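agent: user wants the full assembly modeled, not chains individually. Plan: 1) parse entity lines 2) check alphabet per entity 3) run joint structure prediction 4) return tokens. Steps 1-2 passed, two entities, 565 residues total. Proceeding.
--- entities ---
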Amino acid sequence: MSTLVIADHDNSELKPVTRNTLKAASEIGDEIDVLIAGCECSSVVQSIVNLGVARTVHVADAPYFEHAIAENVTAIVVQLAPAYQHILTAHTTTGKNFLPRVAALLDVQMISDIVEVLDATTFKRPVYAGNGIATVKSNDTTVVLSVRGTAFDPIVPGTLATATNTLDSATFPDPSPTTHIKDELAQSERPELNNAKVVVSGGRALGSSESFAFLEELADSLGAAVGASRAAVDAGYVPNDMQVGQTGKIVAPELYIAVGISGAIQHLAGMKDSKVIVAINNDPDAPIFQLADYGLVADLFEVIPEFIRQIKEGS
Amino acid sequence: MKILCAIKRVVDANVNVVVKNDGSGIDLNNVKMSVNPFCEIGVEQAIQLKEAGIADEIVAVCVGSAKTQEQVRVCLALGADRGIIVDAPDDLEPLTIAKVLKAVYTKEQPQLVIFGKQSIDGDNSQTGQVFAALTDLPQATFASDLSISDNLATVVREVDGGLQTLQVPLPMVLTTDLRLNVPRFASLKNIMMSKRKQIDVLSAEELGVVLERRTETLRVDRPPARSAGIVVKSIDELVSKLRDEAKVLP
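--- prediction returned ---
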């Protein structure tokens, strides 16, 4: 029984979430191969080889894999698929984009966003913004899964010698008619939301984009990533890639500090698995206090400067 | 240009959903149902394209029971021109829904098919992509901006690190993200007018699609409860708790 994991990467670095996906794969079976579809992505290949957990790393290296266009990635996964019983990737915007296409062409019902492996065909996954945890069993011959990274630890590096299988570009399918125009990726010195140890998030109570600078100072004093509630994104204070919630990013850091966030269900779905939750809000009835480990009822503009001062003092 | 908007009937976003005690699922009795918010954004986008003179017909399609009439009617009141309901159980899997919609696509031949990026019940984020693969159409998922000219769509996509812009030839599949637009409210006049708009009810059988299931939901449980902690009085107390008790600060 062997498993194919499609790596998440940006052509130069392997995304950390791939290690979480590999951990989920290892709970299904020992025979794991990895596919890296990219362009000039040899450093990513090297990262997989160094990790020592895969039998083989398949490398599809061509210009039209550079931007992970769904149709192109799908075609190469479908070519490799007959050799595998399980096909996994991370439930990121990249994975969500191509994996359902793969499942469709294999005539398989994919199972999205798994948080637990019960056995080779049975998995747990959140539904209704995490208000329910469904136990789902696949009856398909190939099991196609996207994995919630925060629900699995990163795989521990092993000693397996990984063979490299460079796929022959002559066998690559015709590229998609889609043209990539540009990427506008946020440039930040801060850690990525998906795998930061500390996350500081702001809500609508911040009142403006400028006030987020205030939170950034708090985040920087903690080495934290900055997130936001959907209300803050809706109000236009920050871009959508900062959204934590059911329809944004799912995070589970050691410490989550919610500032001026009331705690709508859809936000809680994105952060309630954090180890320690702190809520600062001036409304004592805000739902966020019902799951915060430490709540402080206060005007955020009054207490945040003091918070920053004390953290800087202590470190 | 014709636009097909796939919509889903889901529990309203403001309802606190309750997991049944016997683990058999979510309690849907007497719960307010709505058009999935992301599908509503899709309908709004179609209406804006029609207002801009780019589209001339908007068809809203829903795969589900007779109860979905209510949600399809909402889309007609918002500005869709006609509706199609494919009579089926309400809890079909994305693969089967996409197969049904493929049959509708073949019949209707739209240039643009719009889906919500995910439904807020199953949270799968699959149906648009599965449909695109089955129909062999290019896709642009998680769209936050769309412009169309000369049969070419320019789409800005919300991706994990920021934004990606793609140019996709029509016909194509679009799935909507939150910031694509803010849906309008239907006016009373349009609600009244919508009662005269046509809704065709089709059966999966006449479309030649078998409504099968590939997965079984064995049970649905409540997530592990997280109990409220303590309320601290000051930043002093908060910082000392985080340092000494939770040990998450240096």
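agent: reporting back. The two ends of chain A are 50 Å apart (CA to CA). Residues 12 and 41 of chain A are 6 Å apart (CA to CA).
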